[in-house]
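Support request, please re-run this one:
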Amino acid sequence: MRNGMHTDMERCVRAVQSKDARFDGWFFTAVLTTRIYCRPSCPVVPPKPENMTFYPSAAACQQAGFRACKRCRPDTSPGSPEWNQRADLVARAMRLIGDGVVDREGIPGLAGRLGYSIRQVERQLLTELGAGPLALARAQRAQTARLLIETTALPMAEIAFGAGFSSIRTFNDTVREVFALAPSELRDRVPKKRPPATPGVLSLRLPFRAPLNPDNLFGHLAATAVPGVEEWRDGAYRRTLRLPYGHGIVGLTPHVDHIACRLTLSDLRDLPVAISRCRRMLDLDADPVAVDDQLRTDPVLAPLVAKAPGRRVPRTVDEAEFAVRAVLGQQVSTAAARTHAARLVTAHGEPVEDPEGGLTHLFPSPQALAALDPSSLAMPSTRRTTFTTLVRQLADGSLHLGVESDWAEARARLLALPGFGPWTVDVIGMRALGDPDAFLPTDLGIRRAAQELGLPSTPAALTARAAAWRPWRAYAVQYLWATDSHPINFLPV
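Re-run finished. Output below.
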């Protein structure tokens, strides 16, 4: 890991002088003479080393009085990979802030979800990131405001409240302070010849660190798509979103240097949360160079990495939904799991209107599933017990799966449920909780790949061999799965 990289002056200077985009989001360069902060890959001539200072977050730069560069737009760089590869207090706090908890529940809500005091949370964030939770949330609001200003024709008052500001005056002051431009000036800088926006649809670009291989990422999401909730259409993965203030529909299309994102929201206040969840689902804040460098040290994995580098772990926008779907997928084919899920969606999902047609429902909430008649479930009695126990505990809050979850604690709670074995717990760990080191040695596809590649095929022996892949075993799973001809490994035509 590169925890605290901003304190390594020599390394940061080298990254800035080489304009290395791999370090965008790891740290930010503040220029003492111009009072501007940039991402490492900024295209302008690098300043003299004695005029550089480095910060671990955009919020820390802003708090120190630096303004965002108008050329490289550091506020829109990919997020630090650390928040998705760590499970400590700071990482969990950052995932919650990205999910909009501070705006909805304040600092007490953030601390309560983490199980720490307000003082402990603020102290640890200040120590590691140079900014407290309010400053970090403020930086996110500023970025959301800029997105809305530049991608919509909405009135500034609607943008202010949609971005989470409590007043138009605060919105105006923050935008001026962060970007050195008034909101109207930011809008004036947008090229006039851009295509007209579709009313009600937000069109955004989601950045990532290269390389990114979209095949298994979108292939997995499309092959396991639940009818009514998800679909693959015209080169885009589309799905419905259950959000804090309402619902949304998103379409995500892979491109060489970004993911095109089309969002329709019932409430604009959900924009930062929707973006955060889509980025998390597509694993866009990963550091593929670090991952692949580690995995290619194994002579068996090296050819797989060389053939298609940059594989991501397909994750989820809703941890509880994924846990339910993992149970539906126990010991059945992908097609059978989709059929089971589609029946639940039709019977218990919340209807939504899709302007483009095709999507019809939100995936049922745990509360709705806990109220269903167990005898209506077309599955063996033991799996029915597994299903009903899971949804009941999710519904009453005795089991919580979220971005703030402690991975070890969540695993222990899941293993205590009837019918939850290592495969189910680890697939939830990998795709819902986001543990980059989750491993599936008992998975049929992994065992088949191991046999084909000459790796140990028994779970214990394969786990021992996989120790060299840590902390990136979830990514090794993607490369091993890719040796098979299953549709999850191919970008749909």
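The mean pLDDT is 93. The chain has 23 helices and eleven strands.
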